[in-house]
Design brief:
The protein is of the alpha/beta class. The protein folds into 3 domains: about 90 residues, Ubiquitin-like (UB roll) (Roll), CATH 3.10.20; about 140 residues, Domain of unknown function (DUF4445) (Nucleotidyltransferase, domain 5, 2-Layer Sandwich), CATH 3.30.420; about 260 residues, no CATH class. It is built from 17 helices and 27 strands. A 6-stranded mixed β-sheet has the order 12-11-10-13-15-14, with helices on both faces. A 6-stranded mixed β-sheet has the order 26-25-16-17-18-27, with helices on both faces. Strand 19 and strand 20 form a beta hairpin. The structure holds FE2/S2 (inorganic) cluster (FES). FE2/S2 (inorganic) cluster (FES) binds next to loops.
């Protein structure tokens, strides 16, 4: 194919394209972050770009997701445009990546108990009377003789020992000598705990000598341009020859970007990172190690592996010490992964006398119920609505996202970063619907009502109810200064009902499976970044959670679990115990699931 040039405004970046591909793929592969939650099928409408120059692109079928006005103004879906000419496009204003609102908190210190150890030694110099090898000289100083030696140490030793005048620091992992450095670096043993979410990846750097959290950061999972949820990712793998490799590389790239930012913040040498621990759903863990998760997508939903794995992080492509260990926390089943184990590690449900209900709301909602005697868990396919996907003006929780909505005489909003609103994130969506239920604009069946069916509405609120494509829409924010309106559509309300219905049905089924009643549950532990920001009262109003239960927001519990595992081998053993103890309940095999789900769709608690 001929080479074509794409000019991307407003940055004026030029991309050369030499192979047949869609504009969406070309932008993604060039590292330009463009949304696309349907994996390039033209069905989510998120990959909008404005074609300024490109006759063939403008002549193409623009799909069903754009309005007539948008099409006339040159907007097109990037995934529906094959590259057949030089083009100039502009990408819409969007949230700044760096300002992602992700809950990074947790303890700032963890108890350390690992097999990593550094010892500073000064060796006697060799002589004609003492011709011991360099390695034997090191082992003699360590005082034990049954060490295994790695290639890295054999390669580095002769120069390192002499450059440092026979004073070196030796890093061991159990009975294996894994590294050798000049001088005294005994305080420099680091590890990174990763919580690999389908949408967001969070990394935490911990000093494994002191147990201190040294830095933490989050980034969008670069896989998300290939599909919003785990099923879309698996579909991408099964439909594309190099799909598995592409997705593996994307998550590794995300992890490396996070590591770069962590070492910049902490001012450390990446070679001093010896340990990587991951939690994540089972599909994310498979994609990370390049293991094909295809069987998780079809009954009986079998993963390739579920126990914890210990691999070499460096050969996996992670930019850390050559001998760093990558430990994947154990999964439970195809749809209940290490992130669930992480939540239980952090919340100690397996030690609790009281019955606790933990809900980790993400693209998939993981639900756990139990105490020290028994824990059962299920996964509810909430879909990406809580992450802002499949919602007309939905977006991730980043600058410009409406995160809080209050409705009295009119609508009052809080916007992340105090910017002009450009969309609405999951917590804003739940708030908006809850507030509209309270003022009667949305009924308990989920219908957005026309203003003449709602008594006692102020004029300001009446004016916000407008006719939409499928029923009525509600204008949350009226666009100013060329910004578009942020509108909640009837379809958005239906999407939210499906998402929250899946979670609420999962909760009901676990309660019946355990043979208890709601009143027997001591409290709800709401985990995950979304769970941390949601207004609990709004979650109860839309019947996402049982109204009568006390709710404790526990933050990014899965990520905290990963940190605990990173810092401590005892926590690794606990993770194994927990993953064995959890009994997985497959919702789709329950005959009553469909009925429970249908009743859970309503907004009445
Ligand atoms: S419409 Fe293009 S990625 Fe979904």
């Amino acid at each position: 194919m001929k080479s074509f040039q794409i000019t991307v405004l407003p940055t004026n970046r030029k991309i050369e394209v030499t192979e047949e591909k869609s504009l969406h793929s070309a932008l993604t592969q060039a590292g330009i972050d463009i949304e696309g939650t349907c994996g390039g099928k033209g069905t989510c409408g998120k990959c909008k770009v404005r074609v300024l120059e490109g006759k063939k692109a403008l002549a193409k079928d623009a799909g069903k997701k754009l309005s007539k006005e948008e099409k006339e103004a040159g907007w097109r879906l990037a995934c529906l445009i094959p590259i057949e000419e030089d083009m100039t496009i502009s990408i819409p204003a969007k949230a700044e990546e760096g300002d992602r609102k992700t809950h990074l908190s947790g303890k700032d210190h963890y108890q350390v108990d690992t097999q990593f150890k550094k010892t500073n030694i000064t060796m006697p110099k060799p002589s004609l009377e003492d011709q011991k090898s360099d390695i034997n000289r090191i082992i003699a100083e360590l005082g034990e003789d049954d060490y295994e030696i790695t290639l890295q140490v054999l390669e580095k030793a002769p120069k390192m020992i002499r450059d440092s005048k026979f004073n070196v620091t030796v890093t061991s992992y159990g009975k294996k000598i894994i590294d050798i450095e000049k001088g005294d670096t005994t305080k420099e043993i680091y590890g990174v705990a990763f919580d690999i979410g389908t949408t967001t990846v969070v990394g935490t750097l911990i000093n494994l000598v002191t147990g201190e959290v040294t830095a933490a950061n989050a980034a969008a999972n670069a896989q998300r341009s290939y599909g919003a949820d785990v099923i879309a990712r698996i579909t991408y793998v099964s439909e594309n020859k190099n799909g598995l490799e592409v997705l593996k590389n994307k998550v590794v790239e995300t992890m490396n970007n996070i590591i770069n930012s962590l070492i910049d913040t902490a001012k450390i040498n990446p070679e001093n990172i010896y340990s990587i621990v991951t939690v994540g759903n089972t599909v994310m863990q498979h994609l990370l190690i390049g293991s094909n998760p295809i069987n998780i997508a079809m009954a009986p939903y079998t993963p390739v592996f579920q126990n914890s794995l210990k691999l070499n992080a460096y050969t996996m492509g992670i930019h850390v010490n050559k001998e760093a260990v990558l430990y994947t926390t154990p999964n439970v089943a195809g749809y209940v992964g290490a992130d669930t184990v992480g939540v239980i590690l952090a919340t100690h449900i397996e030690e609790s006398e009281d019955i606790l209900l933990a809900v980790d709301i993400g693209t998939n909602g993981e639900i756990m119920l139990g105490n020290k005697d028994r824990i059962i868990a299920c996964s509810a396919a909430a879909g990406p609505a809580f992450e802002g996907a499949q919602i007309k003006k939905g977006m991730r929780a980043a600058d410009g996202a409406i995160e809080k909505v209050t409705i009295t005489d009119d609508v009052y909003i809080d916007v992340i970063g105090n910017k002009k609103p450009i969309g609405i994130c999951g917590s804003g969506l739940v708030d908006a619907v809850a507030e509209l239920i309270k003022v009667g604009i949305i009924n308990l069946g989920g219908r957005l009502l026309p203003s003449d069916e709602v008594p006692n509405l102020t004029k300001a609120l009446k004016d916000r109810i407008v006719e939409g494509r499928n029923g009525y829409d509600f204008v949350i924010y009226k666009g100013e200064d060329s910004l578009e309106d942020v509108v909640l559509t009837q379809k958005d309300v239906r999407e939210l009902q499906l998402a929250k219905g899946a979670i609420y049905a999962g909760i009901k089924i676990l309660i019946s499976e355990l043979g208890i009643e709601v009143k027997d549950i001591n409290r709800v532990l709401l985990a995950g970044a979304f769970g941390n920001y949601i207004q609990v009262e709004s979650a109860k109003t839309i019947a996402l959670l049982p109204e009568e239960l006390e709710v404790e927001q526990v933050g990014n519990a899965a990520g905290i679990g990963a940190r605990m595992v990173l810092a401590s081998d005892s926590e690794k053993a606990r993770a194994d115990y927990i993953s064995d103890k959890i009994k997985y309940i497959e919702l789709s095999s329950r005959k009553d699931f469909q009925d429970v789900f249908m009743t859970a769709l309503g907004f009445g608690n």
